[in-house]
Every structure is written in structure tokens, then in C-alpha cells.
Automatic annotation (TrEMBL), chain A:
PANTHER family: EXOSOME COMPLEX EXONUCLEASE RRP44, RIBONUCLEASE. One of its GO terms (biological process) is nuclear mRNA surveillance of mRNA 3'-end processing. Residues 340-361 are annotated as: Disordered. Its cofactor is Mg(2+). The lineage of its organism: Eukaryota, Fungi, Dikarya, Ascomycota, Pezizomycotina. Keywords: Cytoplasm, Endonuclease, Exonuclease, Exosome, Hydrolase, Nuclease, Nucleus, RNA-binding, rRNA processing. Residues 520-855 form the RNB domain. This is Chromosome disjunction protein 3.
UniProtKB/TrEMBL annotation, chain B:
Keywords: Cytoplasm, Exosome. The keyword Hydrolase does not apply. One of its GO terms (biological process) is TRAMP-dependent tRNA surveillance pathway. PANTHER family: EXOSOME COMPLEX COMPONENT RRP42, EXOSOME COMPLEX EXONUCLEASE RIBOSOMAL RNA PROCESSING PROTEIN. Residues 318-330 have a biased composition (Polar residues). The keyword Repeat does not apply. GO terms for molecular function: mRNA 3'-UTR AU-rich region binding. This is Ribosomal RNA-processing protein 42. It is found in: Cytoplasm; Nucleus, Nucleolus. It comes from Penicillium salamii. Gene3D superfamilies: GHMP Kinase, N-terminal domain.
């Protein structure tokens, strides 16, 4: 039998078509072979400005323009490549050194291959996004070269060739092609000068060897960086490469952590319901205790100890397996601080390393004992262990170098390991290799985690940059912003270009014929005023009330018309949607919108005409709403009051002008509205907030600037009308956009969230918390009053607030209508409409409302664009929810920092006078642990952990240094009653019963607050110390 | 009923006159040295061209074409499927007696390892036939049967193809083998009368060998994605197609046999008189005394060929019209036609073949196929010659 094989090699077209074959596994379990045809072309430009050929062949767009060429004519040279060079990194080089590529000092003119970009996307999505951002920005001259589509540089995978080898070959081929291409096509005049060298950056030894054989310049990342200026700092920015780690692993066989399950085992387990997925959280009081909330159980599962948390870091999405029942434990009643427990670890010596040090083990043992307690609350809870990580949420962390780990031999420029203590206590310390250890001491530095291998007790990371000295304003502020992921860079030019050309001279057009007046109502005659915190520049809202001829009242809320200035999908809109919200720090405001809009053109400043978006109600004198109306308008605010000023004006009997009258009416209505809301079951929640009013008198006591928020009637006046406006608008946009309305909901918290608090209240105060509904909760919170302790009620409210979930933005289609409810406000529907200058959600709602009322914009085009796709809205919601939360955290952290600094400044001043006694205040016990308590100090709005040594026993002098106090721990003994929430601290062996301190939950104590510098090993770190001086 | 008739093998009958049939029969039955219309020797196959991996979207594919333009294309697709054993077990437990249930459980345990025949599905498309006509179904079943019942090889493929499809106790592969037969529509002669014939005609020859050989090649080139998960986990596969593994494992070309295990092939053999003829064309089949489909494979333990199945096929010659001897032909001045035509053979006059096949003929057929240096070996060698990449 004869057989023949058809020969295709004769076909001239065959070379231009090739295919890419891979296997795709779908979610439904299908496994498909996917074949993509690839048509190779020759018109993909090299994008070098030196090239004379490519400009003629590069594909042009519809207007006949070709994309501008990126790579410079005169790229920078190094000692090795004096004639300039273009870089061609491979995937590993990018994985290990992305921070380098972002560095502004070097790494210009980089050719990023499509092959590399795709591989990077599969390996690390965050790095991929960072690389895309680099390619998009012009300044670093990164060019994305579609090598797979260009015929000369396309590489067919050989038989038996691994993907890696093939991709490496592709990188080398591009390098050699670029070399010869530029040689041929460089402009004649330039030819005398040398053609830039094409330098492949790779950490793959085999690739380096082959490149050498093929006569291509190839360097490892570290070799290349060594040849640059400032190489020491740059070298520190390279990740611990995989090869190095592999070598290490091969050298030492010890593995401290169990291996993760394979992906398929995880998915099988998840599907079968034997494994559970959730986000790993770490207790702020005990770094060894984590929890994972899973969808299968009401309560989070406990994860105790490093063994069980198995290299998970707070925020990671993990898969856990439940431990057998005999390993179930109670949550810890102890404060365990990583810094204190692992103080003596040496980052360099790994031999002595064990996953669980003896001390840690001891800390855990005591918890096991507790688990055997008989109390109902102390009954063991299910524990679990981490068996796999679905997604790491590692980010960049701010921290400082643990000075004790920097070692004494810091003299030379030798590379050494140091520990970095992250600001965020829930993050373990990070081992960082650095050559500049001595320089980094006392600095705030930014690092990133590269890996956490089984053979390493701590994650390893690398240095990114230094923010400056510890405790300097600049460094600490930047640290805060980085830690909470706030975008604080100045607005790029593309954003500023979207501002009105007139700048500050912009005015509402005089002529009503002007298109700016299209669809706007003239409300300039109304007596409108704004009431805001003192010194407020971005005035979002203004109000008015006037009597109508029929005896009813017209009440109006006027909101800055930001959507007039920020058009959908332009760079300014995109930037604002990314920022999500304005972030307020004590001495800094990071705006969502450029200054010009926020504080001038949009801001409803007094005495000038401004565009506004108005909500108008007709109300009966009993504050029943007769009708509501929405319109774009032009207003002129008559006055901008601060809360105090407004209050004074209202209270001033002599003021009888119309404006004051209108405010009095507003106040009257607001009280009725508030009562109605309360009757419906709205919660009056509290958060431990203080305000910092930075006065200008430098000499004064900075602590006087720290003020607890006073609640004036006028505060609530504004609040009530804003709530009303938000609810009215929410209803309206939901009517028009049943799927895409941007709303805000506050989920009803599950009752078990309140379990602990209910227990504590009934035990300590014999009070009951009824959590069956928001109304019941509101009423029972009202009953939680201690006549001797006026703050007690607030304390309970603070604690109750913490039991709840946080409110969130959502897209109407994402939930059933019954789920829209805002629990805290007891409103069936809610949205944010009233602060478009500082919140992106409000801006979106403005656009939706404009479209709902048929407002067509200046030029008659509907502004509906960008408001109607649900997917996009859901993305926006996700982002602004995160931003919103981060902004809150950043604000609080900023206040905390300010208070600390104020205390420090005061302490220094006092020290000059010879005494540093701190300041005495009232504090309240919020939580009781076995070896300390958490105290809340309302005066400064801070809460802090008080450890054993910081209990001042009767007859003992309070003022001792930190080091002296630390010595005390060993002499202290405690009696802890977890059922009664009491803790007694005594001198060890002392029979004198009077020489002891008893504290219990909710108790008011006298505390001494001061800012102290840690001495000894943890040197350089400052913290607010709270001493209990009198229980 | 006409439908059924058409679908039966009788429809293979070419429009030959009794005289032509008789002539053909006589030349083919010449003792020891039959003369075939196209001059081939009795064991010679028609020349064919073959290639594999021609359909990029499939797991494996092949094409074989005859010089006359008839060609077959086979595509093999594999799909992951959940093994529904648990439900069976439950059912049988609730229904069966206690002891019986225990027995069944044992059986099913082994079934899970050995796989099930219905995991291989075959569909054949022949122009002019509906997919529920008897012919395609019969052909498909005939090939599937030998496929799933075939080879056992201790090291490489214990349990045969069925077992190879088992991923673990809960999952398996399902194999879809789709066969398409193409008729030569682009013949150089484009006279309308030929077209007429073509439109009316059935496949030019009984398509079984063509389909079988093509399927064989397609299966050899079939790859399954590489399994990454282990044990009883939900299957999880390597996304690199180059890492995919052959359905029929291969050894390195250096170590002797390239394919330790091969799918079976089915050959069509006819007997005419004392002669055994391979790869018969349509005319040859129409005069055959017996038509056998013989499935063979290489048995690995002994390097020899192994017979998997023999199926006899209703010879179309049975339904042809008989010729009338001159002696009985009135127009030739013979005797008046009698009521019962005489039963004797008259040389040169066609008579439809009746009755069974002689044992000795069957034995000879099998011997020619299986024997050392026989046709079976030649075919398999030829197929191995088609480089499967």
C-alpha cells in the first residue's frame, strides 16, 4: 500500500499564516482546544526615531497620521554602552525589577515585547497594569512592539521546545532584528554616530549564554544596574529573584510551612464544600490570630498561629480547611504584639529559625487553656488552617527598619538582611536585603513583598524608596497616603486641559440667550445661604426656604453643578473616578477635582452667581412634603456661614431680616424631619471623632486645637436637608433607571455581630440590646444610659457602630429592591447627591438625575453617556467603595498622628521646664484582655492598648521611662475573668491587697497620656503611651 | 420500504447487465490468477494519499483520498464528562437485594477503572444518506465495536481505549469521532450523463476500508490535554497544547515500535470463486460470492496480528437479475420458457449467488490477512508510513 503526504511548503502564503494553539478550561468544566490564526505582517514599525524606513510603512489611522515614534534618537549611554542603548527586558526582568523600570533616574527607551507583556499578564496582573501605565505615559519612552505579528520577529515553537525557551528565543530574535534593522535604516546623517546597542535584560542563565553565542548584548538585571549611577539604591529595588530562592531552597532542605494544595485540589474541595474561601483578616490586637469570613458560616473561622495561617497576609483571598474539633479554640484574650514577641529574631541567621518560636508557642498554649473554660462565651470556636491562596493582595507597604535587626557590622556596603516593621500592625515584618542598611535607619521607607516561601519564616521583599526621616511631616503624610492608597500626585496636564479656558475669570453668562442657560431656571432672587464648617472652601451645598402664597413653604437645596464642568469620559472624569473622593487630612486636602473647580467655579461661594442643581420641595408648615421638583439652576448665595455663625445668627433675637428668618424656618423643619426619621428607627451612631483646628498661633499649646466635635443645631439642620435631598433624588433616579441607578445601601447587620456586645452589656450593666430591628436597636441604645457616666452612652454607640457592616454604593440592578434599605438611616432608598465636589458617586448621580429630568445640556446633547452601562457602574461602585473607606481610614490616621505630634510637642515643652508628666485625661475601658486593656480617650479620640507595665499601682510613681516600666512586666501578675470582663493587676508576690488595680469593661479611669519614644531595641519609634493612674 | 431497500447493501449494485456481471465474475474467478478490471493483483490496494492533523480545531484528524477522488475526513473531538456512577449505584441499591447490591458494587468499581464503551461515539456522514439511515449507523457501529473492544496492552494501555478515557473515578473523556465521506465531484470529465450517474449513484465502493483507515490515522494523531490534577480531584489540565498527550501513547522513535498500541483497522475482503480479493471496488463487490469485514490489530505480546472480529456482509450479487441462457431464450429460438428456470450453471450466463460461504474460503481469507507478510501487515506498515506528527 502506498501513501503520500500532501506538501504545503510550496505554498508561498503559508509563511504568513500561523496559528497559536492552547487549551482552555472553562468554568463549566469544559476543556477546549483553541486555535487562533495569526496573520503576520511587515508594517509594524520599530518606532525608533533613528529609523528612516518605518515611518513610510507604519500603518496610518483614518486621518492618515501614524503613531508618533517613541524611542529616542539619542538614548542614554552607560559605561558599557557609551553610544546609547535600547533595553529589551524579558518577563523575569520585569517581574523582578518593575520598581526599577518605574524609577525616574534610569531605564529609558525600553522595547516591551508583546510576548513579554502577555507572559507578564499571566504571571502578575498588578505588574501588568503597571507596565501598561508605563507604556502609556510618554516620559519614560516605553514602546510596545508587537513582535508576534511581525513576520521577521515571529517565532514558531519548535518540537519539544518549552514555552519559556520559545519566548526567550523570541526576545533574542527581536534584539538581533532591531540591531540589523537599525543598522540598515538609520538615517544617513546619524550613521556616523553609533547605532544604539540593543541590550537584552534577562535573569535566565541559559538565555544569557545563548545570547552570548548569538552575539547579542545581554545582561542580568543586577549586572546592568551595577553599571548605572546610584546603583546601590537601585540594586536594592530588585526583587529577590526566583533563581536565588531556588538555589537557597536546594541548599537547605528545611521547610517551615506546609505546602499549599494544588489548584485542582482546591477547586475540587471548594466545589465539594469541604474547603472554604474567604479573605484573611488579622486581629489588630493579636498578630497570631486571624479570621476568615466564609459564605458557608455566619461567623468567621478562626485561624490561630503561624502554622495555620500558613504565609497568608492580611487581605489575601485564601482557602481554608476546618480543623478537627479537638483543635477548636476560643478567640484569644491576650494582646500579642509581633514586635514584642519576636524582638530578638535575627534576619540573617536562618538556622535558628523555627516557624513557631517557643515564646509564640507559649502564647498560644495559654489560649488553649482558656478554651477549656466552662463559660458559654468561652466555648471553643471552629478553627481552620489556610491550605491555599487564591489571590494575594500584596501591595507596597510603608514601614521602618527594625534598628535591632540592622546589626552592628553596618560599616561596609555589604548586602545584609534587615527586618522592616510595617506601619500596619497586621502585616508581618518583612525581610529586606539591602546594601544601605545604615542609611535607612530612622527613615520611613516603602517596600514591597516579593514572596513568602516555605523555608522562610517571614516574607521577603525589596526596598522601593525612602520617604524621608521618621516623624517628619512630609514623610509621615506621604506614608499615610501610600498606606491607604490615596492618589496624591498632582493632576496631569491632560486633566488640567479639561478645565474651562477662562480659569478663575469664568462667570455665569450674563445673557440668558447664552447656551449655558439652556434648561436652567433662574433662582438668583432666592435668599440662599450656605452653612459649612469654618474655613470651608469647597462649598457643595446651599439652602433656602420661603413662604408661598398658599401658606406652604418652598424649601430648596442647591448643590454645586459639578457635572456641568466635568463631562463624562474625559481625562478629568477618568481621574476623578479613580480618585473617587477627596481625602481630608489634618493639614492637607487631596482633591478629587482640580483646585479651580473645587474651590472656585463649582463652589457655591457667596455673592457670586453659580450654576447649581436644585432640589425644591413644597412643604406644609408641618414639614409634610407636598411635591418635589428638580432643576438645573443659577443661584447667588447671599452668605456663607460657619455652623457657629449660623447658630449665633439664628439665636440673635435682634436679627429679623429675611435671610435669618428663612434659616429659622429651615431649622424648624429640620427638627420635624429629624424627629420623623428617629421615629422611623434611624440610628444615632457615634464615631470617636475629634476635629483639629489648626490655629495660627504657633506658640500656643497644640493640644488646644484638638476639639471634640460639637453638635450644634445648625449641623443637624444641614444634615437633615441633605438626607432629605439624597432620599428624594434616590427615589427619582431609581424610577428612571431601575437597573443602573447609583444608590447607597447599608445592609442590616446579622444579629450575631452584636453577640459580644449584648453579652457584655447584660453582664456589666444589666442592660439589654435589642437588635431585632433598627428601631428596636435605636430605642435600646437610648436606654443604655449611666447617670454617673454621661459618656457611657456614646461609648456604647461607638461599640455598636463597630458591630455593623459599612454602607456601600451599588448599582440598582445588583440587588432586589428590598435590599436597598439603608439600615442606619432607616430609609428604604438612599443615594449620595449633595457633595459632588468631593465624592464621585454624587457626580454620577447628578448625571443620572439630569438625564432623568430630561436636561439636555448646553448643546442639546443628552448627558446620559456613561450612566447607563451596568458593568461600568459596578466597576465604579467597587472602586469608590474602597476609596471611600480608605479616605476615612487615612483621615483618622492623620488625626491620630497629629494628636501624637501635639503630645510630643507638649512633652518637649514641658521637658524644657523640667517635667514631662504627660497629660491627665479621662479614659474608658473598651476591651479587656488577659494582659492588658484597650482604653478609649474621648478627649483626643484615640484608643490605645495599656499593657501590664503601664498600670500605675497605688503608691507607685507614675513618671518612669519606657525602659524602666518595661522591667515591671516581670513583676506583675494578673487575675483575668473572661466572664466578668475584669482584670486585676498586682505586684507579684505582694500580699498587700490594696496594692493592686482592678479594671473592668466600660469603667471610667484616669489615664495619663503622653508621647514616648521607644528605647532600646525598637528605638526610633514613637507611640502614644497611656498609663492608667486611677481606676 | 423503499427507504430500507435503498439503505441495504443491495443498493451498492451497479447498473451492470447480467452479461457484464457474468464476464466480470468469470475473470475474477480464474483460478490462482484473477483478472481485476483495473489490473491490480488480488491483494493490492488502490493507491491512496493520506495526511493527518489537517483540522486544527480537533484533537486529532486525518484525511485519506483515493485517486478517483473519493476521500474521507475524520475528526476526533474529546470532551470531559462526569461519570454518572453514583446515581447508578443508588438506583441499584434501592432496587436490588442486599447481597446482590454488594455484588453490583464490586462490578461497578471495576467498571470505573475499565471505562465504558459508549464513551466513544461515532457518526458517519455519507452524501445521499440521512444520519439515521441504516448504512451509516451500521458502518459506525461496526467500527466502534472493534475500537472499544480492541487492544489490551499490559504496559502502555492496560484496559484498551475504554480505560484510556478514564480520568478518575468521577470523570472521563468522551470521544466523538466524526467521519465524512466525500465523493469526487470534480472529475475531469464533466459530461452531463456522468453527472447524472453521479447524482444517482451511491459511493463508488463499499466505503468501510476507507473509513476505517482514516479513523485509524485520526486516532493515532489524537491528543488529549495533559492532566495536571491528581487522584480524585476535579480534572485540571495544562493549557499548553504542546504538552498534550497522545491518546494512543507513543514511544520515542529510537526504541523500536513507534506505536506500541494501535487502533484496529477493518478490511473488506471478498471471495469470487476460489479467489480472495482485497480492497474490492464496487463492480467487484457486485459479483462477490461473499463479503467479509475483518477487523485486525497488532497484538503486542507476540508481534503477530490479532483478529478482532469478522462480519459477513450481505453480498449484493444476491439481488441481481439472473441472465437467461440461450437455451431458454425464446427470442434465440430456444425452448419456451419454463415455469422454473433450471438450477444448473451455464457458463457465461449470470446467476445471482446464493448460499453461504465455504469454511475453507473463510479460512483462506483470514490466513491471507493475518499471515506473516500478509495483507494485514502490509496495510499496517503502510499506515505507519504516514508520518503522524
Amino acid at each position: 500500500m502506498k501513501s503520500l503526504r500532501r506538501d504545503l511548503s510550496a505554498n508561498p502564503q503559508a509563511a504568513n499564516v500561523t496559528s497559536k494553539v492552547f487549551v482552555r478550561s472553562t468554568k463549566s468544566g469544559k476543556v477546549q482546544k483553541i486555535v487562533r490564526e495569526l496573520y503576520l505582517r511587515e508594517d509594524i514599525p520599530c518606532s525608533s526615531k533613528l529609523c528612516s524606513q518605518c515611518p513610510s510603512i507604519a500603518p496610518a489611522d483614518a486621518n492618515g497620521n501614524i503613531a508618533p515614534f517613541v524611542l529616542s534618537e539619542r538614548p542614554a549611554g552607560t559605561t558599557a554602552f557609551p553610544g546609547g542603548h535600547y533595553l529589551v527586558p524579558d518577563t523575569n526582568a520585569l517581574l523582578n525589577g518593575m520598581d526599577l523600570f518605574e524609577h525616574t533616574g534610569a531605564f529609558y527607551d525600553v522595547i516591551v515585547l508583546q510576548t513579554v507583556l502577555e507572559e507578564l499578564r499571566n504571571r502578575s496582573l498588578p505588574l501588568y497594569n503597571r507596565l501598561l501605565a508605563l507604556i502609556k505615559s510618554d516620559e519614560k519612552r516605553f514602546y510596545l512592539f508587537f513582535n508576534e505579528f511581525r513576520r521577521e520577529t515571529h517565532v514558531r515553537r519548535g518540537p519539544e521546545e518549552t514555552i519559556n525557551d520559545r519566548n526567550d528565543r523570541a526576545v533574542r530574535l527581536v534584539a538581533s532584528w532591531y540591531g540589523s534593522h537599525l543598522q540598515q535604516s538609520a538615517k544617513k546623517s546619524k550613521k556616523e554616530k553609533s547605532i544604539p546597542a540593543i541590550v537584552v535584560l534577562t535573569d535566565d542563565k541559559e538565555n544569557l549564554r545563548k545570547a552570548k553565542a548569538e552575539d547579542i548584548h545581554a545582561l542580568s538585571l543586577s549586572d546592568y544596574v551595577s553599571g548605572l549611577e546610584g546603583s546601590e539604591m537601585l540594586l536594592d529595588m530588585i526583587s529577590d529573584s526566583k533563581d536565588a530562592r531556588d538555589a537557597k531552597e536546594a541548599a537547605r532542605g528545611d521547610l517551615f510551612y506546609p505546602e499549599y494544595f494544588s489548584m485542582s485540589k482546591l477547586t475540587t474541595g471548594l466545589r465539594a464544600g469541604t474547603l472554604h474561601q474567604g479573605v484573611f483578616n488579622v486581629s489588630p490586637y493579636n498578630y497570631l490570630e486571624g479570621s476568615v469570613k466564609t459564605s458557608a458560616f455566619d461567623k468567621p473561622l478562626l485561624i490561630l498561629g503561624r502554622d495555620n495561617s500558613n504565609r497568608a497576609i492580611a487581605g489575601d483571598s485564601v482557602v481554608v480547611e476546618i480543623l478537627p474539633q479537638d483543635q477548636w479554640k476560643t478567640p484569644s484574650t491576650k494582646i500579642v504584639d509581633e514586635e514584642a514577641v519576636t524582638r530578638n529574631d535575627n534576619p540573617d541567621s536562618e538556622e535558628t529559625e523555627a516557624v513557631v518560636t517557643d515564646r509564640e508557642r507559649k502564647a498560644l498554649q495559654e489560649e488553649v487553656k482558656k478554651a477549656h473554660g466552662k463559660h458559654s462565651e468561652g466555648k471553643p470556636q471552629p478553627t481552620a488552617k489556610v491550605v491555599g491562596v487564591i489571590k494575594r493582595s500584596w501591595r507596597q507597604y510603608v514601614g521602618h527598619v527594625d534598628s535591632s535587626s540592622a546589626g552592628s557590622q553596618s560599616s561596609g556596603r555589604r548586602q545584609q538582611n534587615v527586618f522592616l516593621l510595617p506601619m500596619d500592625k497586621r502585616i508581618p515584618k518583612i525581610r529586606v536585603r539591602t546594601r544601605q542598611a545604615s542609611d535607612l535607619l530612622g527613615q520611613r521607607i516603602l517596600v514591597t513583598i516579593d514572596a513568602w516561601d516555605r523555608d522562610s519564616r517571614y516574607p521577603t521583599g525589596h526596598f522601593i524608596r525612602s520617604l524621608g526621616e521618621l516623624e517628619t511631616k512630609g514623610a509621615e503624610t506621604e506614608a499615610l497616603l501610600l498606606e491607604y492608597d490615596v492618589q496624591y500626585k498632582p493632576f496631569p496636564k491632560s486633566v488640567l486641559d479639561c478645565l474651562p479656558a477662562e480659569g478663575h475669570d469664568w462667570k455665569v453668562p450674563v445673557s440668558k440667550e447664552d447656551k449655558g442657560w439652556n434648561g436652567r431656571r433662574d433662582l438668583r432672587d432666592l435668599l440662599i445661604c450656605s452653612i459649612d464648617p469654618p474655613g470651608c472652601q469647597d462649598i457643595d451645598d446651599a439652602l433656602h426656604a420661603r413662604r408661598l402664597p398658599n401658606g406652604n413653604f418652598e424649601v430648596g437645596v442647591h448643590i454645586a453643578d459639578v457635572s456641568h464642568f466635568v463631562k463624562p469620559n474625559n481625562p478629568m472624569d477618568t481621574e476623578a473616578s479613580v480618585r473617587g473622593t477627596t481625602v481630608y487630612l489634618v493639614d492637607k486636602r487631596i482633591d478629587m477635582l482640580p483646585h479651580l473647580l473645587g474651590t472656585d467655579l463649582c463652589s457655591l461661594k457667596p455673592y457670586v452667581e453659580r450654576y447649581a442643581f436644585s432640589v425644591l420641595w413644597e412643604m406644609t408648615p408641618e414639614a409634610e412634603i407636598v411635591s418635589s421638583d428638580f432643576t438645573k439652576s443659577v443661584i447667588r448665595s447671599r452668605e456663607a456661614f460657619s455652623y457657629e455663625q449660623a447658630q449665633l445668627r439664628i439665636d440673635d433675637k435682634s436679627a429679623q431680616d429675611e435671610l435669618t428668618d428663612s434659616m429659622r424656618n429651615l431649622l424648624k423643619f429640620s427638627k420635624v424631619l429629624r424627629q420623623k426619621r428617629m421615629d422611623a428607627g434611624a440610628l444615632n451612631l457615634a464615631s470617636p471623632e475629634v476635629r483639629i483646628e489648626t490655629g495660627d498661633d504657633e506658640g500656643g499649646d497644640p493640644l488646644t486645637d484638638v476639639k471634640t466635635k460639637a453638635m450644634l443645631d445648625t449641623n443637624s439642620l444641614v444634615e437633615e436637608f441633605m438626607l432629605l435631598a439624597n432620599i428624594t433624588v434616590g427615589t427619582k433616579i431609581f424610577e428612571s433607571f431601575s437597573q443602573t441607578a447609583l444608590l447607597r445601601r447599608h445592609a442590616t447587620p446579622p444579629p450575631q455581630n452584636f453577640e459580644d456586645l449584648t453579652n457584655q452589656l447584660s453582664k456589666k450593666r444589666n442592660m439589654e440590646l435589642d437588635v431585632s430591628s433598627s428601631r428596636a436597636l435605636a430605642d435600646s441604645l437610648d436606654r443604655c444610659v449611666d447617670p454617673k457616666n454621661p459618656f457611657f452612652n456614646t461609648l456604647v454607640r461607638i461599640l455598636a457602630t463597630r458591630c455593623m457592616t459599612s454602607a456601600e454604593y451599588f448599582c440598582a440592578g445588583a440587588f432586589a429592591e428590598s435590599e436597598f434599605r439603608h439600615y442606619g438611616l432607616a430609609s428604604p432608598i438612599y443615594t449620595h447627591f449633595t457633595s459632588p465636589i468631593r465624592r464621585y458617586a454624587d457626580l454620577m448621580v447628578h448625571r443620572q438625575l439630569a438625564s432623568a429630568i430630561g436636561y439636555e445640556g448646553e448643546d442639546g446633547h443628552a448627558v446620559i453617556e456613561g450612566v447607563c452601562t451596568r458593568n461600568k457602574l459596578e466597576d465604579i461602585c467597587r472602586n469608590i467603595n474602597v476609596r471611600h473607606r480608605n479616605a476615612q481610614f487615612a483621615g483618622r490616621a492623620s488625626i491620630e498622628y497629629y494628636v501624637g505630634q501635639a503630645l510630643k510637642a507638649r512633652g518637649e515643652k514641658m521637658a524644657a521646664n523640667g517635667v514631662d508628666a504627660g497629660i491627665e485625661e479621662e479614659g474608658y475601658v473598651m476591651r479587656v484582655f488577659e494582659n492588658g486593656v484597650v482604653i478609649f480617650v474621648p478627649r483626643f479620640g484615640i484608643e490605645g492598648v495599656v499593657r501590664l507595665e503601664d498600670f500605675v499601682l497605688p503608691g507607685e510613681s507614675g513618671a518612669r521611662s519606657v525602659a524602666e516600666r518595661r522591667e515591671l512586666v516581670a513583676h506583675r501578675t494578673t487575675e483575668f475573668d473572661s466572664e466578668e470582663y475584669t482584670l486585676r493587676v498586682e505586684e507579684k508576690g505582694s500580699s498587700d491587697k490594696t496594692r493592686g488595680v482592678d479594671v473592668e469593661l466600660f469603667q471610667r479611669v484616669r489615664v495619663n497620656v503622653s508621647s514616648v519614644k521607644e528605647e532600646g531595641r525598637g528605638a526610633g519609634k514613637r507611640r502614644v503611651r497611656i498609663l492608667i493612674i486611677e481606676a | 420500504m423503499s427507504n430500507q431497500r435503498q439503505a441495504s447493501s443491495a443498493s451498492q449494485v451497479p447498473h451492470l447487465s447480467p452479461a457484464e456481471l457474468s464476464y466480470l465474475y468469470t475473470s475474477l474467478s480464474l483460478p490462482k490468477n484473477p483478472i481485476r478490471p483495473d489490473g491490480r493483483s488480488p491483494t493490492q490496494f488502490r493507491p491512496l494519499s493520506a495526511e493527518t492533523t489537517i483540522l486544527p480545531g480537533t484533537n486529532g484528524s486525518a484525511r485519506i483520498g483515493f485517486a478517483d477522488g473519493t476521500q474521507a475526513i475524520v475528526g476526533v473531538k474529546a470532551e470531559v464528562e462526569k461519570t454518572v456512577l453514583a446515581a447508578d449505584t443508588l438506583d441499584s441499591r434501592s432496587l436490588a437485594q442486599h447481597g446482590d447490591a454488594l455484588n453490583r458494587e464490586g462490578e461497578e468499581g471495576s467498571a470505573a477503572v475499565s471505562g465504558q464503551g459508549e464513551w466513544v461515539q461515532m457518526s458517519i456522514e455519507i452524501p445521499g444518506y440521512r444520519d439515521d439511515d441504516a448504512l451509516p449507523i451500521f458502518l459506525g457501529e461496526m467500527m466502534r465495536e472493534s475500537l472499544v473492544g480492541s487492544v489490551e496492552h499490559k504496559d502502555e494501555m492496560a484496559g484498551g481505549l475504554k480505560a484510556r478515557l478514564v480520568i478518575n473515578k468521577r470523570w472521563h473523556w468522551r470521544l466523538y469521532i466524526d467521519v465524512s465521506l466525500f465523493l469526487p465531484l470534480d472529475l475531469p470529465v464533466s459530461a452531463t450523463d456522468i453527472m447524472q450517474v453521479l447524482l444517482l449513484s451511491q459511493p463508488l465502493s463499499y466505503p468501510l476500508p476507507l473509513l476505517s483507515l482514516t479513523t485509524h490515522l485520526a486516532l493515532l494523531s489524537t491528543k488529549l490535554p495533559k492532566l495536571k490534577s491528581t487522584g480524585e480531584e476535579d480534572p485540571f489540565f495544562d493549557d499548553d497544547w504542546a504538552a498534550a498527550e497522545y491518546l494512543y501513547p507513543r514511544s520515542k522513535p529510537s526504541s523500536g515500535a513507534f506505536h506500541p498500541v494501535r487502533p484496529p483497522v477493518t478490511l473488506l475482503v471478498v471471495s469470487v470463486g476460489e479467489n480472495v480479493i482485497f480492497d474490492p471496488n464496487r463492480e467487484e463487490i457486485s459479483v462477490a460470492d461473499a463479503v467479509l469485514a475483518i477487523s485486525i490489530t497488532r497484538s503486542h505480546d507476540s508481534e503477530a496480528l490479532k483478529l478482532l472480529s469478522i462480519r459477513s456482509i450481505d453480498p449484493p450479487s444476491r439481488l441481481t437479475q439472473p441472465g437467461i441462457p440461450n437455451s431458454e431464450n425464446a427470442s434465440m429460438l430456444g425452448a419456451a420458457p419454463t415455469e422454473n428456470p433450471s438450477q444448473e450453471e451455464v457458463t457465461g450466463v449470470w446467476r445471482p449467488r446464493r448460499g453461504g460461504i465455504k469454511r475453507s474460503v473463510v479460512a483462506r481469507m483470514i490466513k491471507t490477512v493475518l499471515g506473516k507478510g500478509g495483507v494485514g501487515e502490509e496495510v499496517l506498515e503502510g499506515l505507519e508510513g504516514v508520518e503522524v506528527q
